Amino acid sequence: MAERLAASAATLRASAAATPFARRAAPANRAFFSPSLARARVGLRAAPSSLPQKARAVRCAAVAMASDAAQVKAAREDIRELLRTTHSHPILVRLGWHDAGTYDKNIEEWPQRGGANGSLRFDVELKHGANAGLINALKLIQPIKDKYPSITYADLFQLASATAIEEAGGPKIPMKYGRVDVTGPEQCPPEGKLPDAGPSSPADHLREVFYRMGLNDKEIVALSGAHTLGRSRPERSGWGKPETKYTKNGPGAPGGQSWTVEWLRFDNSYFKDIKEKRDQDLLVLPTDAALFEDPKFKVYAEKYAEDQDAFFRDYAEAHAKLSELGAKFQPPQGFSLDD
């Protein structure tokens, strides 16, 4: 396993930093949580069919099982090692968020309602503009899926996302597991479910998208704080500078513009830096600025800028809620990992 992870690291380390929810850059469709992996150097346009034959067979099989708790727990240790060797925290957070963030609370049927169901492993959804570059996240964790076949993709994506937050110094997320996978690409959600970065009315757009998921203003602001991780590259997302003093030396491939100085550390710097407007080398998207411009959002953004403990508490709750959106659990109540 160590050799396989090392091989993945050597291939993908240069492209392993991206941030959550993202749309690919286009004149009318830009990034919210920017995809700094929008076009990685390796396998730029590769579909999951480029994965090993064994992986394709496992991936495409009709999966109705629940995850095995012992394997989920063991996989968490392998994910921790992967993070240490690849600095892939941001893109793994993004992978989990994008699988869950298609949820529509107005649709009762599973899997039509979208959400955390593993559908992001299929080509049709990976090719959505918002998911540009996430093929590289899938390649990073596929060896772990192969090693632990009794884990659903839906659980693996969310396990990787939560573990990345915790390993970056963030709060422990109160996760539960047992998500069931969709069984085929025909069950993928339609494109257009994830947020943009530069809409004409940023605050209204954030509410439209996140309210559809069943999230509230506090949760919108708390989840936005995950921008403390990762970078945006203008040639990929349409946002940010080609390079700053904080990104010119990596880690990973140099370049891009980060929201925070220490962009692989999870803390409340995102809120502090936006509030203080202290450095032109730090990125502020229209949807970031809206957190301090909209009166209702500002209440929470100000609080998080002053109180990291409050941010961590609210973020952990919001992340856990996001990770369960639309999911079908087996057993129905799910299960947690005992530490």
From TrEMBL:
PROSITE patterns: PEROXIDASE_1, PEROXIDASE_4
Cofactor: heme b
A biological process from GO: hydrogen peroxide catabolic process
Pfam family, any one: peroxidase
GO cellular component: chloroplast
Region (Disordered): 228-254
Basic and acidic residues: compositionally biased ranges: 232-246
Family: Belongs to the peroxidase family. Ascorbate peroxidase subfamily.
Protein name: L-ascorbate peroxidase
Organism: Zea mays
Gene: LOC100194161
